[in-house]
Amino acid sequence: MKNIVLFASGSGSNVENIIHHFHDKPNVTIASVLTNKRDAKVLDRCNKLKVSGLYFNRAAFFETDCVLNILKSLQPDLIVLAGFLWKMPANLIENYPNKIVNIHPALLPKYGGKGMYGNHVHQAVKDNKEAETGITIHYVNKNYDEGAIIHQSKIEVSPEHSVTEIAQNVQALEYEHFPKVIEKLLSR
Ligand code: GAR
């Protein structure tokens, strides 16, 4: 049996997609979804999908071992950041080397770093007239968006694409590839 713990900060559509993907796979459990936003839509999704959802605040995350202790009790084989917008603190990274992965909605190392999330990324891609964009799934280390890359997928961008269209196309890539990459990592 393999355990996944998910972290998310907002809507959680990737969380929902991942939960659905593993629903009929008896050897993988979603142990819990952890969020730093008390009113995040991801908690409603957890409720609906009957998966445990836990909220933690800034102090618990950055100043104590509270979240680390929760993780220790859940014994994750993989920790998956799916739209989680806080930087992972050293106590978590040191305890879970090569076990924390993140998805970023661009082709890193382009359009990464602090402040680069959601539509900020897609707007920058459009403003710079990029011919392509995509997704990056990578290990999490101490530096934002700089851990070793596990997987990238690309799509074309044309000048006619709106930011919303770019976002939708990138999201489609996330839904297609993220669960499969997670499954592959768990089977190693
Ligand atoms: C996803 O597009 C993910 O790549 C992005 O947040 C979105 C979350 O959507 N992550 C980042 O920008 C991390 N820097 P969701 O809540 O609907 O899954």
Total count of domains = 1
Order of helices and strands: EHEHEHHEHEHEEH
Percentage of helical residues?
25-40%
How many strand segments? 7
Can you tell me about this structure?
By secondary structure, this protein is α/β, with parallel strands linked by helices. It has a single domain, classed as 3-Layer(aba) Sandwich (Rossmann fold), CATH 3.40.50.170. It contains seven helices and seven strands; from the N terminus they run βαβαβααβαβαββα. The protein has helices at 13-23, 41-49, 58-63, 66-74, 90-95, 118-127, 163-186, and strands at 2-8, 28-35, 53-55, 78-81, 100-104, 132-139, 149-156. It has a seven-stranded mixed β-sheet. α2 (41-49) links the parallel β2 (28-35) and β3. α1 (13-23) runs parallel beside α7 and α6 (118-127) crosses α7 (163-186). The longest helix has 24 residues, at 163-186. It is globular, with a radius of gyration of 16 Å. It starts with a strand and ends with a helix. The model has no long low-confidence stretch (mean pLDDT 97). The structure holds glycinamide ribonucleotide. The site of glycinamide ribonucleotide has 15 residues, from α1, β5 and α7.
